[in-house]
C-alpha cells in the first residue's frame, strides 16, 4: 500500500474517489445540459454533442484508474520480487506491465477528451454571440476549432505509435521503453504546454465580446465571471504541467517510485478532464437553476414576507364589528296532515302555536384601516 508519506493524489482512496465522483458529476451535468436545451426549445448543436464523447472518454479514464487501483497497478508502491537486487527501472512484473498499459490508454484518451471540451467551448461562443460569418471573430473561432481538432488527432496518433509498431515495448521495462521510445518524454511535455496555452486562449476569447455588449458594467462583470468558471481547468492543467516538467527536466522529484509518479499524473489528468466537462456545461445548466430553483425560491420568499406583513398589519390596525340578529319564529304543533306552511298559522288555534326566539352574533364583518 502507498505509504502515509505519499501525497493525497497518490493514495488509493483519493484516486478512486476522484475518478468516481467526477464521472458521476459529468454524466449528470451533460444530462442537465440536454434537458436545458429541451426546456429552452433550442435544438442541440455542436457544442452540446461534443460533450458526449468528452464525457465518455473522461469516464473511460476514470474506469481505467479504478481498475488499476483494484489490481495494485496504481497508487501502490512497486512490489520488488524477493531476492531481486537490480534497479527497479529494469524490472518487468505484471504490476509494472499493468501500470504501463493503463498509462498508455490514459495518454490516448486524454487529448481526445480535452480536445472535445475545448471545441465545445469554441462552438458555444459562436452560438451565444451570434457572430457574423465574415467577421474577424468568426474566422478566429473557426481557425481555433480546426487547430483543436488537429491538436487532439495529432497527439492521439503520436501516442498510439510512440514505439512504432512494437507495442510490447510500452509495457516492458522502464529502461527499454525510454531507450527505444526516446521522444515520449518530449511528447508528454509538449502536450502539457500546448494544453495550458490553448486553455488560456479559450478562456479569454469571450472577454472582448462581452465588453462590446450593450449591458451595464455589473452585468458585464457577471457574464465574464460565468465564462471564467472554466478557469479552474486552467489551474489544474498548470499543476499537471508543473509536475510533469519538474519531474522530467527540473529538480522537482515527484516521487522515487515510478508507479506513484504515474498515479499523480493520471490523477490530475482525470481532474482536468472532469472539471473541464463540468465547467463547459455550467453556462447552459445555470438556466435550469435559475428557472426551477432560484426564481421559485425568490417568489416564495416574497409571498411569505408579504403574507406575514399583511397579517401583522391586520392584527394591529383592524376594527372588529359584531352584528346581532334577533330571530323569532312560530312553531305549529299537532298538524301533521296539513303541513307546516305559514299560511296555516293564521287559522290555527292559539293553543297549538308557540313562539320562540334567539339571538345570533356574527363577527365576520371586519374593517381594516
Keywords for this entry:
single chain, 369 residues, mainly alpha, Rhopdopsin 7-helix transmembrane proteins, 2 domains, two-stranded antiparallel sheet, 11 helices, 4 strands
Description:
The protein is mainly alpha-helical and 369 residues long. The chain folds into two domains: 8-79 and 87-290, Rhopdopsin 7-helix transmembrane proteins, CATH 1.20.1070; 319-368, no CATH class. Helix content is 64%, strand content 7%. The protein contains eleven helices and four strands. The chain has helices spanning 12-40, 46-49, 51-70, 94-129, 136-160, 174-180, 184-204, 206-211, 217-227, 231-248, 258-316, and strands at residues 318-320, 323-332, 353-362, 366-368. Helix 4 (94-129) packs antiparallel against helix 5 (136-160), helix 4 packs parallel to helix 7 (184-204) and helix 10 runs antiparallel to helix 11 (258-316). The longest helix is centred in the last third of the chain and has 59 residues, at 258-316.
In a few lines, what is going on in this structure?
The protein is mainly α and 369 residues long.
Helix and strand succession? HHHHHHHHHHHEEEE
**N-end to C-end Cα span:** 77 Å
Oligomer: single chain
Helix-residue proportion: 55-70%
CATH structural class of the largest domain: Mainly Alpha
Q: Architecture of the largest domain in CATH?
A: Up-down Bundle
Mean pLDDT: 79
CATH topology (fold) name of the largest domain: Rhopdopsin 7-helix transmembrane proteins
Please report which band the strand proportion falls in: under 5%, 5-15%, 15-25%, 25-35%, 35-45% or over 45%: 5-15%
Count of discrete structural domains: 2
Q: Regions with pLDDT < 50 over 5+ consecutive residues?
A: 315-325, 335-341, 358-369
Shape: elongated
Amino acid at each position: 500500500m502507498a505509504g502515509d508519506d505519499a501525497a493525497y493524489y497518490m493514495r488509493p482512496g483519493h484516486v478512486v474517489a476522484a475518478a468516481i465522483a467526477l464521472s458521476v458529476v459529468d454524466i449528470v451535468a451533460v444530462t442537465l445540459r440536454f434537458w436545458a436545451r429541451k426546456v429552452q426549445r433550442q435544438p442541440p448543436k455542436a457544442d452540446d454533442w461534443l460533450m458526449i464523447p468528452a464525457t465518455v472518454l473522461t469516464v473511460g479514464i476514470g474506469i481505467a484508474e479504478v481498475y488499476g487501483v483494484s489490481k495494485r497497478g496504481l497508487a501502490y508502491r512497486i512490489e520488488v520480487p524477493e531476492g531481486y537486487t537490480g534497479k527497479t527501472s529494469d524490472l518487468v512484473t505484471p504490476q509494472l506491465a499493468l501500470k504501463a498499459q493503463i498509462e498508455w490508454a490514459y495518454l490516448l484518451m486524454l487529448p481526445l477528451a480535452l480536445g472535445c471540451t475545448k471545441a465545445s467551448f469554441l462552438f458555444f461562443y459562436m452560438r451565444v454571440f451570434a457572430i457574423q460569418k465574415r467577421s474577424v471573430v468568426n474566422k478566429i473561432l473557426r481557425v481555433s476549432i480546426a487547430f483543436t481538432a488537429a491538436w487532439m488527432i495529432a497527439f492521439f496518433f503520436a501516442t498510439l505509435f510512440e514505439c512504432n509498431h512494437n507495442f510490447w515495448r510500452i509495457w516492458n521495462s522502464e529502461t527499454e521503453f525510454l531507450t527505444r521510445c526516446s521522444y515520449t518524454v518530449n511528447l508528454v511535455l509538449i502536450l502539457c504546454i500546448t494544453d495550458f496555452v490553448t486553455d488560456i486562449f479559450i478562456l479569454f476569447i469571450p472577454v472582448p465580446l462581452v465588453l462590446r455588449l450593450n449591458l451595464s458594467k455589473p452585468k458585464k462583470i457577471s457574464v465574464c465571471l460565468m465564462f471564467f468558471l472554466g478557469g479552474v481547468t486552467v489551474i489544474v492543467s498548470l499543476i499537471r504541467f508543473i509536475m510533469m516538467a519538474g519531474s522530467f527536466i527540473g529538480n522537482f522529484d515527484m516521487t522515487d517510485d515510478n508507479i506513484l509518479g504515474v498515479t499523480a499524473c493520471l490523477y490530475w489528468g482525470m481532474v482536468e478532464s472532469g472539471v473541464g466537462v463540468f465547467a463547459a456545461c455550467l453556462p447552459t445548466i445555470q438556466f435550469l437553476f435559475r428557472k426551477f430553483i432560484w426564481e421559485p425560491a425568490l417568489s416564495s420568499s416574497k409571498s411569505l414576507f408579504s403574507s406575514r406583513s399583511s397579517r401583522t398589519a391586520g392584527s394591529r390596525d383592524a376594527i372588529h364589528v359584531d352584528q346581532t340578529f334577533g330571530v323569532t319564529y312560530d312553531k305549529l304543533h299537532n298538524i301533521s296532515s296539513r303541513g307546516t306552511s305559514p299560511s296555516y298559522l293564521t287559522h290555527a288555534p292559539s293553543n297549538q302555536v308557540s313562539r320562540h326566539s334567539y339571538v345570533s352574533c356574527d363577527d365576520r364583518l371586519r374593517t381594516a384601516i
